């Protein structure tokens, strides 16, 4: 996997050092045994460990501005799809970027909210969103919402509302509109849906949430179960939560989708990696939507980590995930709505079995090297399910 360096020499040197350390750690681990994920390639494992080192270094810096410079000083090559037009834009005072693939259908629009813990908007994120727009055959407006810790919640929600209103006023029919976001952006998708529903505003046709942050302030033990797999660490989500809430007397629970009234939400399509730190809360949220008789399709790639969709065409699992996004958009916005979505219940059933298995294995792994850890069903690369 090739990469490009940018920015100051200090940031370049730090990134090179972290990449060397990650490569060495992976080589040593593989010499001793199998990788932690049964389907992990050498490139994926190295990039995953490097991202963990980089995020740890970024959050230890004195200023978030410097941390953002570090994040943007290296970019792994997962280029934009060919034929993708990109240009900056401003709507109703909010800034963003338009992505328009050659394959777009003119009546479809995605309003996309990027991830990054509400504190980062990595330049490489645009490439990931470009692949999503291409898979959905839709143009996409990527909102450059205000970031934390400079701007605490609900500044981000206000920007999202302004962007949604601007799109509708520009004659974008909500029946052809898709809300989408990853990680913190997935949280913003669900927060905007809650605001729109409570204000009796026309809702979009579909909401797509990739590895969404569904429980702000969650500090249960399940948040740390996948620390030794994921590049994002459970404790880091607590830092992002503190920045999001800010100095205001805002209860984190009040801005957690887990506690929203889900009545009247449009269809939700949710993806998660079984090895990400947010997996437990995402699965519980999917259960809650199903119990509220909401329409949700929940796809899990058991061996994948947070935001694995960013690997675009490089990784087979991310290619599968992108194709499934296209399936969801075609199903809910297609003329005939003939493309079937998965109807199996296996995803949520396997989550229960995996959760029990992981907790029992914790007693064993405490006495073993963590690279010896094995999933419940290593033959399953992608488990899909729909509850309605």
Could you characterize the architecture of this molecule?
This protein has 388 residues and is of the alpha/beta class. It folds into two domains: 3-75, no CATH class; 81-387, Rossmann fold (3-Layer(aba) Sandwich), CATH 3.40.50.1820. Helices cover 40% and strands 15% of the residues. The chain is built from ten helices and eleven strands. It has helices at residues 9-32, 42-59, 64-72, 125-136, 155-169, 184-198, 234-245, 279-291, 316-333, 346-365, and strands spanning 3-5, 74-76, 85-91, 94-100, 109-113, 139-143, 177-182, 206-210, 268-273, 296-301, 383-387. 45% of the residues are buried.
Task: Please give the structural blueprint.
Elements: E1 3-5, H1 9-32, H2 42-59, H3 64-72, E2 74-76, E3 85-91, E4 94-100, E5 109-113, H4 125-136, E6 139-143, H5 155-169, E7 177-182, H6 184-198, E8 206-210, H7 234-245, E9 268-273, H8 279-291, E10 296-301, H9 316-333, H10 346-365, E11 383-387
Parallel strand pairs: 5-6, 5-7, 7-8, 8-9, 9-10
Antiparallel strand pairs: 1-2, 3-4, 4-6, 10-11
Helix pairs in contact: 1-2, 2-3, 4-9, 5-6
